[in-house]
Structures are given as C-alpha cells and as structure tokens.
C-alpha cells in the first residue's frame, strides 16, 4: 500500500503542475474592429458569430461607423479571425480621435472614409537630423561650392 499511495501522490502533483502550465490567465480586453456591414443581415451575422466565441461578454455594433466593439476574455487576433470568417471584410479599428494627432491633415493620416472626429492612426516618423549633421547635406553643399571646379554655375 505504501508504494501505491506514493505513486498516486506523485501522479496527482504531476498532473496538477501540467494543468497549471496549460491554462493561460486571460485579461478582460476590449477589441475594436472595422467590419464592412451593409444590411441588417450582415450585422446580425457578425454579432451572432462574435457572441458565440468563448469568453465574449458583450458585442456592440455601430453600423453607421462600421465599428464592432467586443468586450471579454478574448484575444484580438482570434476575434479578428472570427469576424473575417463571416465573409465580411474586417480589420482592427485603424482610427484614433482627431485631437490626438499633431498633423491630422497630413497625407498619411487623413482618410476620407474615417468617421467624423477620427483620423487614421499612423506611426510617427523619425525626426530629420539637424542641419550639417549628415553626409547628404555635405554632398549638396559641395555641388554649389566655389572651390569645386565641376560645381554648377547658375547665375
């Protein structure tokens, strides 16, 4: 009996340890998607598909903005994949409020299709180097130098 009880104890510890590793602790998340929905049928199809996912608590749809907000213990990539499986075009919500952007009318961030008060989110570009700090500026200055016999002579 001593060997069997020891074996059972070890096997319970072993199985308990592996079940802990397999379970991931999911956090409550809000995932916003842009899903193309033209009619009530499309809206119902998307809502039904996303509501059936494990861990989803609420699904809110704004058809005018074509925005779907899913709240629950879910991963954004899985929600996006499920939304695409309905046959509608879907992507992660690409817009941010207008007042958070330094240059909202720049070519990259301005989007005619954006809902009112929103612009497309674009990663900020790196600032250009200060004048005289780069090799490129030195080459340009040498092109118009009086010391360079092959320089451009525009008068």
TrEMBL record:
Keywords: Metal-binding. The keyword Coiled coil does not apply. It comes from the Eukaryota. Signal peptide: none annotated. The keyword Metal-binding applies. One of its GO terms (molecular function) is metal ion binding. Residues 28-91 form the HMA domain. This is HMA domain-containing protein. The lineage of its organism: Eukaryota, Viridiplantae, Streptophyta, Embryophyta, Tracheophyta.
């Amino acid at each position: 009996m001593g060997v069997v009880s020891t074996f059972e104890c070890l096997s319970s510890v072993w199985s308990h340890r592996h079940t802990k590793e397999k379970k991931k602790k999911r956090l409550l998340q809000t995932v916003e998607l842009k899903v193309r929905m033209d009619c009530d049928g499309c809206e119902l199809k998307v809502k039904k598909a996303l509501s059936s996912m494990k861990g989803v608590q609420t699904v809110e749809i704004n058809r005018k903005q074509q925005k779907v907000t899913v709240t629950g213990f879910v991963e954004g990539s899985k929600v996006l994949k499920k939304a695409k499986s309905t046959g509608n075009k879907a992507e992660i919500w690409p817009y941010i409020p207008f007042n958070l952007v330094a240059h909202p009318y720049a070519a990259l961030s301005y989007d005619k299709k954006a809902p009112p008060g929103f612009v497309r989110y674009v990663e900020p570009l790196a600032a250009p180097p200060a004048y005289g700090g780069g090799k490129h500026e030195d080459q340009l200055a040498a092109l118009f130098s009086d010391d360079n016999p092959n320089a451009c002579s525009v008068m």
